[in-house]
Amino acid sequence: MSIAEKITNDMTAAMKARDEHRLSTLRMVKSALKNKEIDKRAPLDDQETLAILSTLIKQRKDSIEQFLKGGRKELADKEAAEIQIIEGYMPKAAGEEEVANVVRATISEMGSPTMKDMGAVMKTAMSKFSANGTRVDGKMVSEMVKKQLAGQ
Fold first, then answer.
1. How far, CA to CA in Å, does 121 sit from each of 27, 66, 124?
2. Are 49 and 3 in contact (CB under 8 A)?
3. 82-112: buried (b, 16+ CB within 10 Å) or exposed (e) per residue?
4. Bridge partner residues of 93 (DSSP)
5. How many other CB atoms sit within 10 Å of the CB of residue 140?
6. Which pTM was predicted?
7. Is the predicted pLDDT of residue 139 greater than 90, yes or no?
8. d(C-alpha 53, C-alpha 83), whole Å
9. pLDDT tens across 52-67, in order?
């Protein structure tokens, strides 16, 4: 079963359970997927679906940050709950230790890169995560790369 099919089935279950928050979140996700499908003019594969879900999660995190700056805790909590629902359809996320290990390995493979080579290190590290099918926060990887390159 594809991710999109799972979302549709869960949407039906949320309707039957009268779970309004979950239903509205899943409708928003399904709408984003359908819009991308229309733009592409072809069905989405799971990789493209995961990319869209990642974008939605990132948008929610940015919204949380803005709501907290504006003193709107209740809206930030609503966005956080949406993130939890969306993350249920994503593969496992890499932890901080795993990110640090991959970054160290990438740097050692590349010899002795400097801060000027940060882009190349980032690209290689991110490709390793996508090859494993592991989800990772790009901001965390960037901070780890900076820290590792500055420490050399």
1. 38, 30, 5
2. yes
3. bbebbbebeeeebeeeebbebbeebbeeeee
4. 135
5. 16
6. 0.71
7. no
8. 10
9. 998 999 999 999 999 9
pLDDT in tens, 23-38: 999 999 999 999 999 9
Residue with tokens 């932890």: 95
Pull the structure tokens for residue 34.
């359908």
Distance of CA 84 to the CA centre of its chain: 11
d(CA 78, CA 133): 28
Supply 148's token pair: 């590792």
Q: Which of 100, 97, 110 is nearest to 148 (CA)?
A: 100
Tokens of 87: 């993350």
- Both tokens assigned to 137: 């926060």
User: Which of these, 95, 91, 103, lies nearest to 135 by C-alpha position?
Assistant: 91
- How many Å apart are CA 11 and CA 7, to the nearest integer? 6
**In the chain, which ranges are continuous DSSP H helix?**
3-17, 20-40, 46-69, 73-87, 96-109, 118-132, 138-151
Q: Six-digit token pair at 3?
A: 């991710």
Q: Are 152 and 110 in contact (CB under 8 A)?
A: no
Q: Take residue 109 and report the two structure tokens written for it.
A: 């493979």
